[in-house]
Specification:
The complex is a heterodimer of chains A (312) and B (570). Chain A has 312 residues and is mainly α. In chain A, 78% of the residues lie in helices and 0% in strands. Chain A has 2 domains: 68 residues, no CATH class; 211 residues, MetI-like (MetI-like fold, Orthogonal Bundle). Chain A is globular. Chain B is α/β, with parallel strands linked by helices. In chain B, the strands form 4 sheets. A 6-stranded mixed β-sheet of chain B has the order 6-7-8-3-9-10, with helices on both faces. In chain B, strands 16-17-18-13-19-20 form a 6-stranded mixed β-sheet, sandwiched between helices. A 4-stranded antiparallel β-sheet of chain B has the order 2-1-4-5, with helices on one face. In chain B, strand 7, helix 8 and strand 8 form a beta-alpha-beta unit. Classes of the chains: A mainly alpha (312), B alpha/beta (570).
């Protein structure tokens, strides 16, 4: 089991990464023009009121001192207080994290359910009509922006067919999942196009490779050649691609949550940016960054589990 | 010949190219007897692999097809049966093993499961029974601890054990015929001898018929009953091995046999002499207690201090100007590392290397300048060692311009001279490597080495990738150049027979140390060390009556790691 030893020490390497992320998000948020106090007070803003708000949230301090307090809070498991919502950022995030988390999970599962069969179909009919159709769809799919796709799905499935809700989030688990079908499908359709391309290429190479030749030479039926030897070997490169894309996807939920009015992290982030709610933006960015690091860590574990040759 | 099992009649295979079909195998007919080992011999492009793929209709490309002829097995024509029928033949009647076990075994699957898979599919038994049968096969193909090794993955085994594993996979469905496509080409000689011995044992114990594809006449002489010689898709001759090797009918076969490095005529060519001259001159190379160690990668935070792998451990060697020294040893013996350290390409951990009076450790800058101007290297793979985008002329001009050894305006003349030296037509100056054969590329590589006017040429396995007839030509070229240009040659090879032909002195390396050195004739005639004896004994001789590893003579040096590979030497 020494191959899994990295699971113990790899998290130590995350510390400098997270430090870097905190510094970058902290500085970038403050580069956005505008002032949270001004946004908060709106038309009622007077210089005195603005100064009072700024003092209340420590915004009048030098930036390096603000960062120091931010780190100090972070070390104690706190992310400060939201200027807009007037509550703890960490509490705010915990109320919003569930829809996003479930959305990402559903999207990834759904995209695999779409990508693996379609890529298999295309690879096995390499050059045939099925291959052309799948390649056409996946090339087309890359060209569709998710927000447009989301609107099309709403118009077709919700408005025309009245199968799914137009927007919002449910109360019970079943209701929640029901509300998440269209948002997940939107993300899954975009994600699967990337996966199909990678999987199809890897599968075609494996189907022509020595491994498949050797399996056929011992009389294995094509189904065993494919599912026992070609597919696992093709998944190895795709796992890492998937991890990179999940990282990108976590940020991508912002658009989909906005279109479907899901009360998740993405929506929270958008609103926080508009109102210059520095604390919330920092907090959400930190959570997104940690999630990305974590996903890549999981991908490394999965790679080690699939491929006995890999040592981390 | 015993009772005929498989009968090939007038088999032709064509490639459907863009400019019409091209016949790659042309009217091939031969029989394979029960329990017979038939050697299929030929150089690259002779169609020997394609022939065997055609027998079970496993074409490497959909553009290849059998155009005529029959492959008869048990009264069925395999060239015409349905796809389902041929699948039932593959594995169950005709098993196959390949040259490269690493790429033909599934890296993600346990070796035992790969054997069990075939048993389950073909015999329709349950997992437990298949496992028991697989354990039995693992033992038969020479795994010392089947129960433990069942769970090993291919990359955990050494090359020889992987090939045993692949033979096990091929045997899983109990075939009557085994097609072995260059099964030992990628292996060291001592391991090759063991795998060939295993194939012969399996023939005895199972009554297996074997078609053995090889380019090495020594292997067929040692293992086969009959030999078929192929060239350009045609069968030139077929017959009992003693007849074909003793009285070859076709001029091509005669040339093939004459090119084999173990032929006595070729061994007589070794230049004896100018030994007295060595005594007076100063050595060109002096290696004193050289150590080269590499850090082992992949160490974790908690696994303690850095670990090292010693590739060269205390080697001392002197090479006189004009001398030809062969360095032999199996993979991992440190012979290439030694050469790279000598040329300043690999950092030296300990000890001293002096080239023509300059110490490359203490006077690194001076020595490196000397080395770059006075030494050159010839590499194993002639295609990869040449820039595919440069013509041979441009490549030589580049070296000449950098070295500034000849005035700019004389460069074209010098290129012509260099091509003459290596026996290439002058028109090759305008050709690129991809339009040249392997032998021509290697000649161009040698011309590039000569362009620096070297005192020393280091040739690292430079004929290993070439066909035997081409090998012989390149070795002759080296012999000729050495005399004409008074070159010092360090010739690294795993092939002892070639070293025996070319070199005056031979150095045998094993696990980073020199185990034996001396004049070639002495070392080959009376090797002192058991390892050298095993190495020499493992060379398949072209004379069928000089048996391979006579009564298990290599037992002193059975494979180092019969089970799992230990350490991270790679």
């Amino acid at each position: 089991m020494h191959r899994y030893k990295f699971v113990l020490y790899r998290p130590l390497q995350f510390l400098p990464v997270l430090f870097g992320i905190s510094l970058i998000t902290f500085v970038l948020v403050r580069l956005i023009p505008g002032d949270p106090a001004r946004v908060l007070l709106g038309t009622k803003s007077t210089p005195a009121a603005i100064a009072a708000i700024r003092a209340q949230y420590g915004l009048d301090q030098p930036i390096w001192l603000q960062y120091f307090y931010f780190l100090q809070n972070l070390a104690q498991g706190e992310m400060g207080k939201s200027i807009l919502y007037k509550i703890d950022v960490l509490r705010l995030i915990t109320t919003r994290i569930e829809p996003t988390l479930v959305l990402v999970l559903c999207s990834v599962l759904l995209s695999l359910l779409i990508a693996v069969p379609l890529a298999s179909l295309a690879a096995r009919s390499n050059g045939g009509p099925a291959d052309h159709i799948v390649r056409f769809i996946s090339t087309f799919g890359i060209g569709f922006p998710p927000f447009w796709l989301a609107l099309m799905l709403i118009i077709f499935f919700s408005v025309r067919l009245d199968l799914f809700p137009v927007s919002g989030y449910g109360e019970t688990l079943a209701d929640k999942l029901y509300h998440l079908i269209l948002p997940s499908l939107t993300i899954a359709l975009s994600l699967s196009t990337v996966l199909i391309r990678s999987l199809r290429t890897a599968m075609i190479a494996e189907l022509k490779g020595d491994l498949a030749t050797a399996a056929r030479a011992r009389g294995m039926p094509e189904s065993i050649v494919f599912w026992r030897h070609v597919v696992p070997n093709s998944l190895v490169p795709t796992v890492n691609l998937l991890a990179v894309n999940i990282g990108w996807l976590i940020g991508g939920t912002v658009v989909v949550e906005s279109v479907f009015a899901l009360p998740g992290m993405g929506q929270l982030l958008v609103r926080a940016i508009f109102s210059r709610d520095y604390m919330v933006v920092q907090g959400v960015a930190m959570v997104f960054a940690c999630a990305t690091v974590l996903v890549n860590f999981l991908a490394d574990i999965v790679t080690v589990a699939i491929d006995p040759r890999v040592k981390q | 010949m015993s009772e005929t099992l498989l009968s090939v009649r007038d088999l032709s295979v064509a490639f459907a190219g863009e400019d019409g079909p091209r016949t790659l195998i042309d009217g091939l007919s031969f029989d394979l007897g029960q329990g017979e080992i038939l050697g299929l011999v030929g150089e690259s492009g002779s169609g020997k692999s394609l022939t065997c793929r055609s027998l079970v209709r496993l074409m490497p490309s959909p553009k290849l097809a059998i155009t005529s002829g029959a492959v008869m097995l048990d009264g069925k024509d395999l060239a015409k049966v349905s796809e389902a029928d041929i699948r039932a033949v593959r594995g169950r009647d005709i098993g196959m093993i390949f040259q490269n076990p690493t790429s033909h075994l599934d890296p993600l699957m346990r070796i035992g499961d790969q054997i069990a898979e075939g048993i389950r599919v073909h015999r329709g038994v349950d997992g437990k029974e298949a496992r028991a049968a697989a354990l039995d096969i693992l033992a038969q193909v020479g795994f010392p601890h089947p129960a433990r090794q069942y769970n090993g993955y291919p990359h955990e085994f050494s090359g020889g054990m992987r090939q045993r594993g692949m033979i096990g996979v091929a045997l899983s469905c109990d075939p009557r015929i085994l097609i072995a496509d260059e099964p030992t080409t990628a292996l060291d000689v001592t391991i090759q001898a063991q795998i060939l011995r295993l194939l012969m044992d399996l023939r005895e114990s199972r009554g297996l018929s074997v078609i053995l594809i090889t380019h090495d006449l020594g292997i067929v002489a040692q293992t086969c009953d009959r030999i078929a010689v192929l060239r350009q898709g045609r069968l030139l001759e077929i017959g009992d091995k003693r007849d074909v090797l003793g009285q070859p009918q076709h001029p091509y076969t005669q040339n093939l046999i004459a090119s084999h490095p173990s032929m006595p005529e070729r061994q007589a060519l070794v230049v004896a002499g100018h030994e007295p001259a060595f005594q007076k001159a100063r050595p060109l190379i002096e290696i004193d207690d050289l150590h080269v160690r590499f850090p082992v990668t992949g160490r974790g935070l908690f696994s303690g201090g850095p670990r090292e792998f010693a590739a060269v451990k205390g080697v001392s060697l002197q090479v006189m100007p004009g001398e030809t020294v062969g360095i032999v040893g199996e993979s991992g013996s440190g012979k290439s590392t030694l050469a790279r350290a000598l040329l300043g390409l690999t950092p030296i951990s300990d000890g001293h290397v002096t080239f023509d009076g300059a110490d490359i450790v203490t006077e690194r800058t001076k020595a490196l300048r000397k080395l770059r101007r006075e030494t050159a290297m010839v590499f194993q793979d002639p295609y990869n060692a040449l820039n595919p985008r440069l013509t041979v002329g441009a490549m030589l001009a580049e070296v000449l311009a950098v070295q500034e050894s000849v005035p700019r305006e004389r460069i074209p003349t010098r290129i012509g001279e260099l091509l003459d030296l290596v026996g290439l037509e002058r028109e090759f100056a305008s050709r690129k490597p991809l339009s040249m054969s392997g032998g021509q590329c290697q000649r161009a590589g040698i011309a590039r080495a000569l362009a620096v006017n070297p005192k020393l040429i280091v040739a690292d396995e430079c004929v290993a990738a070439l066909d035997v007839t081409i090998q012989a030509q390149i070795v002759d070229l080296f012999r000729d150049l050495k005399q004409r240009l008074n070159l010092t040659l360090l010739f690294i090879a795993h092939d002892l027979a070639i070293v025996r032909n070319l070199c005056e002195r031979v150095v045998v390396m094993y696990h980073g140390e020199i185990v034996e050195e001396g004049p070639t004739a002495t070392v080959f005639a009376a090797p002192r060390e058991a390892y050298t004896r095993a190495l020499i004994g493992a060379i398949p001789d072209i004379d069928p009556d000089k048996p391979l590893l006579s009564p298990r003579g290599g037992d002193d040096f059975v494979e180092e790691t019969p089970g799992f590979v230990t350490g991270d030497a790679s």
